[in-house]
Amino acid sequence: MLQLSLLPTLANLTLDSIEVFTVNCARCRKSFQDDAIFCPYCGRKQANLPHKPKRAANGTGCAFQRPGQKTWTAQIVTGYRSLPPFDVNNPANKRQRVPIKKTKGGFQTKAAAMAYVRTQQQAPDLTALTLKEVYDLWDPWYSPRVDKGTFGCYRAAFAHFKPLHDRKIAELCAGDLQKCIDDCKCGHRTHQNMKVTAGLLWAYAIDHNMLEKDVTDNLFIGRGASVQREPLTDVEIEKIRQLIGKHRYAEYLYALVYLGFRPGEFLEIRKDQVIEHKGRLYIVEGKKTDAGRDRTVPVHTKIDTIVRERLYIPGTDMLFPMYHFNRKKEPKLVDLRPMTSNYFNKFVFGPISEQLGIPDNKVPYSARHSFSDKLKDAEGTDKTKAALIGHSDYKFTQQKYQSTDLDELIAAVDSMD
C-alpha cells in the first residue's frame, strides 16, 4: 500500500519524464529495454552466461572418464569404414562412414590423456616403412586402375621380392632388387613383371614423399631367355581324349589343347563369349593380350561337341567351371563356381598327369605349346597364326593384327592334326 505522501509525486510523473535504458540484441542487433531477459524480436536469451568450453575438431581425439572410474581414457580415430545402405535399390540412400576408434585408459589426469592423443596423431615417418608396408598401401590404390589379370601378374611378381619384404624401402638399392631378379628361376616374362612392379612401387613412394630417388631405372632382365616348356605329345593327348567320360575334368584339358588359350584365359571363358555363325562355333576372347582385344578362335571340330554340351549346363555362366561338392561321406554337388588357376594346377592337371603317366616337367601351359606346334604345320599365313595364338613373336605383325577373315582362321584350325 503506497504511502499517502508519495501519491502526489506519482501523479505528476509522465512517460516523457521516465528515463528508459535500452540495449542491442546480441543476435539481431535490434534495441529493446535492458531489463528484458529474451529479445522480443528473435528470442535470443540476453543473460550473461558462462561460455561453453571449446570442443576439439572431429577426428582429432578426446579424453573422458568412464562412469564409476576416477582415471581418464584417451580416444583417437584411426580411420573410417563404410556401412552398406539400408536400401540398395534407393540411389539416394548413401553409404554411412563410421569412425574406427582406438582407446587407452588408466591416465590419472585429463592432461595426460590428451598428451597421449597428441603423440598418436603425429605424422608417421614414411621413410621408415618397409617394402611390404609400401606395397600394402599401393595395392588398394593402384589395383582399381588396371585389369584384374594385369594386377595379378604384379602381385605374383612382388612375391619374388620376399627376401626384401621386411627391409625399409629407403635402405634398398638397385643391387638388392637385381639380386632378387637374378635369383628368380622363372621366365623372361616374370622378370619383366618384377621390373615393372618395382618401378610402380618406387614411383608411388616418390609421389607420396617416402623416397627421393628411383633405383629401378637400370634393372637388367636379360635379352629374352625364358624357361622352355615341353608340349604335350600326340600320345599324351590321345590318352587324355580316352579319359573323357571317366574323369570329370578330362574334357577341360583336351579342349585346352585345341583352343590354344593360356590357362588363365581358358578358365575365364564365359558362355556369352561363344558365338555361332553359319553352323560354326567361335570363342571371342575379350581379355587384353599382346595381340590386342577380341581375339577370335574357331572351335576345332574335335571339341565342337564338348563346347556345345557345356553351353547347356545350368547353374553357371562359365564355360569351364569348378564342380563344388560337400565334404560328407557321400559327396553331393552343391554348386558350380569359377575355377582358379591354382585349383586347375593342383586338382585337375596334376591328378590327370599322374593317372596317365605324363612326366612331371609338363605343366598346364604345355597344352598351349601343343596348340602352337600343331599350328606351325597348319595352313595359313603367319599373320593368321599370330591372330589365333594371340602372341607377338612374329616380327612383322602390327600393333593389333587380329585377322578379320574368318575363312582363313577356319582353314588354319581345321588343318591342324
- Shape from CA axes? elongated
Number of strands: 10
Helix-strand string: HEEEEEHHHHHHHHEEEHEEHHHH
Count up the domains: 4
Name of the CATH superfamily of the largest domain: Intergrase catalytic core
Q: Which class of secondary structure composition applies to the elements?
A: alpha+beta
Enumerate how many helices there are, as a single number: 14
- State the CATH topology of the largest domain: hpI Integrase, Chain A
> What are the low-pLDDT stretches, counting only 5+ consecutive residues below 50?
1-11, 288-292, 392-404
Span between N and C termini? 128 Å
Strand content: 5-15%
The portion of residues assigned to helices is 25-40%
What is the top-level CATH class of the largest domain? Mainly Alpha
Rg (CA only): 37 Å
CATH level-two architecture of the largest domain: Orthogonal Bundle
Average pLDDT figure: 79
The largest pleated sheet is described as: 3 strands, antiparallel
Please give the order of strands in the largest beta sheet.
3-4-5
What would you say about this model in short?
The chain is α+β, with helices and mostly antiparallel strands and 417 residues long.
